[in-house]
UniProtKB/TrEMBL annotation:
Subcellular location as annotated: Cell membrane; Membrane
Record flagged with keyword Coiled coil: no
Similarity-based family: Belongs to the 4-toluene sulfonate uptake permease (TSUP) (TC 2.A.102) family.
PANTHER family, sorted: MEMBRANE TRANSPORTER PROTEIN HI_0806-RELATED
Transmembrane segments: 6-39, 51-69, 81-103, 115-132, 152-173, 180-204, 216-236, 248-265
A GO CC term assigned to this protein in UniProt: plasma membrane
Pfam assignment, any one: TauE
UniProt protein name: Probable membrane transporter protein
Biological source species: Agaribacter marinus
Keywords noted in UniProt: Cell membrane, Membrane, Transmembrane, Transmembrane helix
InterPro entries: TM_pro_TauE-like (IPR002781)
Lipid bilayer topology: Multi-pass membrane protein
Length: 268
């Protein structure tokens, strides 16, 4: 079978799983997409990790533009998006996410995979042990710009929407948890948009990228993932009534740790 067709079919399946898990656990799909897509690129298309890792990150981030819009629309209708917060975060996010994308394409694929694995372990630890804490620190232009800048850089470097970084940061500054999640969903789209621009620009005219690439974004994979994830995410959201999502999230976090360790060991 044609490797391109196999890739698209596998990404359609990946998208279905990603959407389901995102809806069920309220997590971004990038944590699943990046390591899985990297395996597909290496084993189906024979792309070395040196180029496969930035392609996986860029493609994952690109899909967030489409999957995040649906979530943002829902939160907007619920009144969970605070314009003053997202607008003040936006400038920092734009700069941080573009910088993160350019940094990701300037380091070696092996180093990039190690960075990704370590950051995933930290996010998994947060998922297991973190309980929202509130400080007395004031929420102002400087703090929001810093949140946007830092979250944008790290999220672009990981190919994720950044909710795991933005939500606890806003809660720390006394933002209601529901509004923090709503603002994070909006910010995730901004991160994905500007991060994708960074990956597309830095990958422009690179002759080692596979056919049908838009910069570092591999369009066939992105198409397959988006095609199914937008339909399975609502199903996952409905399943939250039937499962203990707190326990499932801990199990998933443990799985992420194992995947990350495997990514690190596999480089030795």
């Amino acid at each position: 079978m044609d490797p391109l067709l196999i890739t698209v079919l596998l990404c359609i399946l990946l998208g279905a799983v990603v959407g389901l898990m995102a809806g069920l656990l309220g997590i971004g799909g990038g944590l699943i997409i990046v390591p899985t897509l990297l395996l597909i690129l290496e084993n189906v298309l024979n792309i070395e990790i040196e180029h496969g890792m930035p392609i996986a990150l860029a493609t994952s981030l690109f899909t967030v533009i489409f999957t995040g819009l649906s979530s943002t629309r829902s939160h907007y209708k619920l009144g969970n998006i605070v314009p003053s917060i997202v607008l003040l975060c936006a400038a920092g996010i734009a700069i941080g996410s573009v910088a993160g994308a350019f940094f990701a394409t300037s380091v070696s694929g092996v180093m990039l995979q190690r960075i990704f694995a370590v950051l995933v372990i930290l996010i998994a630890a947060q998922m297991i042990f973190f309980t929202p804490k509130i400080s007395n620190a004031p929420l102002n232009k400087v703090s929001l710009s810093c949140i946007g800048l830092g979250s944008g850089f790290i999220a672009a470097l990981m190919g994720i929407g950044g909710g795991a970084l933005i939500v606890p940061s806003l809660v720390w500054f006394q933002v209601n948890i529901k509004k923090a999640i709503g603002c994070a969903s909006f910010c995730g789209v901004i991160i994905a948009l500007f991060g994708s621009i960074g990956f597309i620009t830095s990958g422009y005219n690179k002759n080692y990228l596979p056919a049908y690439s838009f910069g570092y974004v591999y369009l066939p994979a992105a198409f397959g993932i988006v095609l199914t994830s937008v339909f399975t995410a609502p199903i996952g959201a409905k399943l939250t009534r039937k499962f203990d999502t707190a326990k499932l999230k801990r199990v998933f976090a443990g799985f992420l740790v194992l995947v990350s360790i495997r990514m690190i060991i596999g480089l030795e």
